[in-house]
Design a protein that fits this description.
alpha/beta; 201 residues; 5 strands; five-stranded mixed sheet; disordered N terminus; Rossmann fold
Length: 201
Amino acid sequence: MTSGEISYTLPGHSLYKSIEKAASGERFPHLVKNAKKEVLKITKALKKYQPSVIFSAPSHQTNETAKVIAQELGLKMVVSKNLLPLRFNLKNLITEREFNSLGDNKFKVLRVRFINNFFQDKLIDKNKEIKKRFERLTGKILKNHKNQAVVVVSHAYIIKLFSIYHKIGNEMFKTKQKLLKMFQPTKEPLRRLETLVINFK
C-alpha cells in the first residue's frame, strides 16, 4: 500500500469542515497544484508491481490523482462508484473543538472512532451496502483482470477496508478484534489518499 500526504482542505474551509463535507459526500476537494510531485512519488513506487490497470473513485482528488498515475504508467483507467469514500457523520465521531485540541493525535482518535462506528454499522453507508460494493468491485476485477496486478486508488479508509476484505472476506464484518488488528487505527499512519496494489487470483 502506498500513501500520499495530499491536502484534504477545501478552499475557504478549515480542515475539520473540509473533512465534514467530504465525509458526508457533499463535496470533495480537487487535487492542489503542488500535489503532482507527491503523486509522482506514489507512481514511482507502483512501477515495480507492473500493474495492468488502475481503478479509481470518481471523486475529484482521487480521480485526478489516478489520471496522473495512469498517464505516467501508460495504464487504462476504470472509474468505479464502488470506490467512493465511505460516508459518515463527522460530528457523531468527534466535535470540531475536540478535533482541534488533539494536535498530532487528531487523526488517530478519528480512525479509532471511525472503525468502531463501522463495526457497529453506524456510518451513513451501511455495512450491507459496503459489502455489496466490495463484492461488485472484486467481481469486476476478477472477470477482466484475473492474475494481474491492479492499482486501486481512493481515500484511506475505504482502501484499508477493501484491502482487509480482499484478505478475509465477510469475516471483517463479524470479528471486531481481527478487524482492529488489521486496520491498526492507532499504529498505522494512514494518509488522506492511498493506493493499493492487489494481485487478483
